[in-house]
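Shape matters. As here.
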Amino acid sequence: MKKYVAEVIGTFVLVTFGCGTAIAVGCSSENGSGYLLTALAFGLVIVAMAYSIGNISGCHVNPAVSLAMLIRGQLSVTDFIGYIISQCIGSTLGCIVLGVVFGFDCGFGANQIQAGWTNGTEVGALIVEIILTFVFVLAIIGVTSKVENSAVSGLVIGLSLTLVHILGIALTGTSVNPARSLMPALFAGGVALSQVWIFIVGPLVGGALAAVVYSFLEG
C-alpha cells in the first residue's frame, strides 16, 4: 500500500508543479522564457521525487514507465494495475489543486497539437510522442539497470525528461505520460479531450518499445 501512496504523491507533485508552471508562465518563450521554465519544472519534479519516493515505489509516476517495467518482469500485473490507479488519482488531485489556484477554466496544462506546429497532424503527434517516450523510458531503464548508478539515476532521469520537453513542447506540449495527460484533458475538455488518445497510445507504445529494445540490447 505504501508504494501506491508514493505513486499518488509523486504524480500529484508532477501535475501540480509541471502543469502549474505551464499555466503560470504560458509555456511560451515570449513570456519569461516560459518554454524552458516548463521543461525544467517537469524535469526537476522527477529529480525531487526520485530522491524522495524512489526507494519506496521506484518513482514511476507514469503508466508508460510502469508498462516498461511490467514487460521487463520488474513489476507484477497486480502492482501494474495498482500503480496505474494510483497515478491517475495523483493526477486528479493535482488538477483539483490547479483548478482551485488558477480557476477551473485554466486549461490545466493539457496536451494538444500545438497551433504553432504548421505541419502538425494527429499521426505526426502520435509519432512524436512515441519517439519522445522511447528516448525517455530508454534512459530510465538504462540508468536504473546498474546498482552503481543509483546515486545519479534521479538526476539523469530528470534531465532526460527536461530534454524531451525541450523538443516536444512546441509540437504536442510533451506528454510522455498518460496519467499526466488524461486527467488534465478530462478537466479541460474541448480539443484536449478529443486528442487525448494520442497522449495515451503514443507514450504506452513508446514505453513498450523502449523495454523491448533495451532487453534486446542487453541480451
Notes: Residues 77-102 form the longest helix (26 residues). The radius of gyration is 16 Å. The CA atoms of residues 126 and 201 lie 8 Å apart. The chain has a mean pLDDT of 94.
